[in-house]
Amino acid sequence: MAKKRIVIDAGHGNQDPGAIGTTGKKEKDFNLTMAIKLDALLKGNPNLQVNLTRRTDVFLELKERVSVANKMPADLFISIHANAASSSANGTETFYNRTTSAPLAGVLQRHMLAATGFKDRGARYGNFAVIRDTKMDAVLLEVGFISNPEEEKKLFEDDFQNRVALAVAQGICEYLGVPFDVQAPTLPGQEPVKVTPYPEMSVTVHTAAGSTYTGYNVKGTTWVPSRPIGELIGGRIGYTKGKVTINGEAVETMNIDGVGYVTARDLTKLLDARIFWDKTIPSRVEIYPKN
Ligand SMILES: [Zn+2]
Fold first, then answer.
1. How far is the CA of 130 from the centre of ligand 1 (A)?
2. Which of 69, 139, 181, 224 could cysteine-pair with 74, CB 3.0–4.6 Å?
């Protein structure tokens, strides 16, 4: 059997935070974490090929999200969101646009609801571009309300996220008629989906605002988070075709916990900064901007 192709779309990103919770938490971050957890649960399944529209905090236009899925073409499109309205609004809901997507919405709503324990707002029609303009079965999940203080708190709890991701993963497999086959390391109560397999490096950036970041030492090469450091030292950080761009130049990129990392060497070279590795403390790196 040919692999079923699934596109998981974490809503919003970068300059578009989506809804903002009562404590200031951002919907874009919830969406991305959930997409990464879902990917981790599905990617080992031999019957599935899973693709994410974004794996880092980057912005994509709605039509770009649609075209990722249509070009493939995917068999299934799942967009992940958190809802917002008044602080008392609450519950889980799933939107479909075409009636042919309604059965998928029904299955995922049922699974999600069991995991969230929130009010059932149903599987409903919604006129959203990502589920309207995609050509395959497509749904938009509103896991809960980030504008509701109680639901916001839950939405950002690791256990809750793992449970919902597991439920959605099982729902997808049920709908596609493929066995749910967990080869990924995550089940509720076990380790969260966090990939930090490399020794940490302390990266200090010497600006007036001065800041220290966590980098990673991967086989002797220092990798640093591209956006915070790049922007702090005056660079333009972008993203294209799976790679971070620094002042427009695409560089080797690694995604760690959903963040785009680049090598400290590429970053400092392209931004004309100086870099020093501390010989006495090998886990320390110092970056000095040009001026
Ligand atoms: Zn949203």
1. 11
2. 69
Q: What's the 141 CA to ligand 1 centre distance in angstroms?
A: 9
The CATH number given to 4-176 is: 3.40.630.40
Mean pLDDT of the region 268-287 = 89
Indicate whether 154 pLDDT > 80: yes
Find the 140 Cα to ligand 1 centroid distance in Å: 9
List residues bridging with 250 in a β-sheet: 245
Query: Are β-strands 4-10 and 76-83 bridged in parallel, bridged antiparallel, or unpaired?
Result: parallel
Report CA torsion sign: 127, 9, 171, 20.
negative
Residue 203 has φ and ψ, to the nearest 5°, of: -110, 110
Run of H or E including 163:
helix 158-176
Tell how far the Cα of 172 is from the centroid of ligand 1, in angstroms: 21
What tokens appear for 174 in the block?
């049920």
State in Å: Cα 153 to ligand 1 middle.
17
Which tokens is 130 given? 């990502």
Token pair belonging to 75:
């068999």
Residue type, 228: P
Where are the domains positioned within the chain? Answer: 4-176, 200-288
